[in-house]
Amino acid sequence: MIRIDKGLFDEMVAHGLSNLPNEACGVLAGKEGRPVKFFPMTNADGSPLTYRFEPKESLRVWNEIEDEGFEQLAIFHTHTHTEAYPSVTDRKRAMWADSDQPSFPDTYYLIVSLEDRAAPVLRAFRILDGGAVSEEDVTIG
Amino acid sequence: MSEPIRVKLPTILRKHAGGEPLVDAEGSTVRELLSDLESRYPGITKNVVTPEGGLHRFVNVYVNDEDVRYLGSLETNVQNGDTVSILPAVAGG
Ligand SMILES: [Zn+2]
Predict the structure, then answer these.
(1) pLDDT recorded at residue A132
(2) Ligand 1 (ion): which residues have CB within 5 A?
(3) Are A73 and A61 in contact (CB under 8 A)?
């Protein structure tokens, strides 16, 4: 169960809309399970179909999260034309270096579908061993 | 003999090193460093270096703040005082 302030949700959606037609991505940092800060990331793929954190930004944000005593609560990305559900690529890339072990078993994956630009849909998941998907409750507000 | 270099491990690899986020390793290139790391913590670099000897496409390695893909990849030189960070490339579709 993850509860996201309306303000942080709006930041994620704004980042998503500003990256159209491409997918957008970012990290939600938390403290004791509560989201505290959204880090928008550059999608190094610059694609409507895939995303990849820009590597240098990724290191900088990772270090900042550790230095601030935050946790990487969620990895965020948008789907521009499909539902907010992990794609085959999402599940595959969530595994560490093509193993069957997820790189971030404790991190939520937040997907916002911008299929209807005026009504973004947010859903939350964990991606587990072998790419299994577990949907998690998420509330805004 | 080269000096120890600090290696910052991603969460997923820390279990190989008794939970430590930072470990020491030796080498004069990233490739030697990873090889030394493997001898200290067997299995830790599995899949990081591909069977063809390259860096896995979805693993990022940095020397200090620089992505080694923009330096010399696995042949990038490292020296005492450097921090080498290993991170999963966060990606999807
Ligand atoms: Zn996706």
Answers:
(1) 98
(2) A 87, 90; B 92
(3) no
